[in-house]
What does this fold into?
Amino acid sequence: MAISTEERDIIRKILDMVEQDTTHMLDDVMINPVANYTDPEQLRNETEILFREFPLIIAHSSQLAAAGDFLTHDDTGVPILATRDDAGEVRAYLNVCRHRGARIEDLPCGNSRRFTCPYHAWSYDLDGSLRGMPQPVGFDPVDRSERGLVELPAFERFGLIWVVPSPRTETIDIDAWLAPMADHLDGLELGNHVVFERWALHKDMSWRLALEGFQESYHFCSAHRHTACSNYLDNQSLWLNYRPHVRHAVPLPSVLELRDLPEDDWNYRKNFMTQNYLFPANFIQAMTDHVYIHTIIPTGPGTCAFHCMMLVPEQPGSEKAQRYWRKNYDVVRTVFDEDFAIGEGIQKGFGAGANEDVIFGRYEIGLHHGQKAINDAIAGKIAVPTK
Ligand code: FES
Ligand SMILES: [Fe+2]
It folds into this structure.
């Protein structure tokens, strides 16, 4: 398959920068106040805006493969119950009973034709409608049709399930929101992938610090000296800013061999790791032959949850395939642990008051784009489009 114009341009620019012995740089450094990582008021704004009004990835499509499959998700602070209805549509609801507010479903996942509240056994269909209650005469004349589960915007795109964690009256245009990244993400065919591993970690660091680990590659050859460093060209990334989303292309050393090939024979995927940032907190990290999905969620001042999935193109059919993917998984867990150890140390250092700000270098470009987008969203200058 011919590569896209965008990918051809990325390769050309990388080869050109290597040739010129330079790297992708902005005109100036950026100073970011430490308060952005520590201030409870800042976190309140981030939670209320970024984590209530924008889509977050909560699952791979295969986790809700059949009608009645469900999962619950709580780390945003909003109790979410997601399911697939009989029409095959993914739906998400507040996991809260409309009688007196009990939590309806407590299991992390399962399959059910109906959700029944444990408190007084009001029951709800997969489409959220209130189906029944014991001794209904006691609730006359309440209109049952107005007591369905409160629905959250939910979408299935690129084989992933996205939820906006607050009820909305307008219809969100998810395709317009994701459009700048759609061709590249479609091409990954994540819907045909399988989940090899899925894990969640809770860390003592601002969600922003966890985010930043994916937004620059300047740290690879120090923080990951014995792991990721040799896999990539040192500090040679390129960023495409689709504000507020960002495509961060990190070249493998093998990209240099493309210099000797006609452009029509260039292959992007084999020569790059791509960290696709989908605002505000999702990463689709495409490796040469598999993909990681990360969603990073603040759980308090200086704490966050890191939800991750490793997707592989097919169910490992042999022990050899199993071993191959397991080895990749082990390496990535080690690399992430290296990042998290540093992030938790930074958070502690913030508390010590040594710095009033941090500096984003001219080539730590994803940090600049990410912080500016967060600032703009909090200021009301970025919103999800509606229909
Ligand atoms: S709170 Fe759910 S049935 Fe009463
Ligand atoms: Fe890292």
In short: The chain has eight helices and 20 strands. The mean pLDDT is 97. The chain has two domains: 5-54+176-378, 56-163.
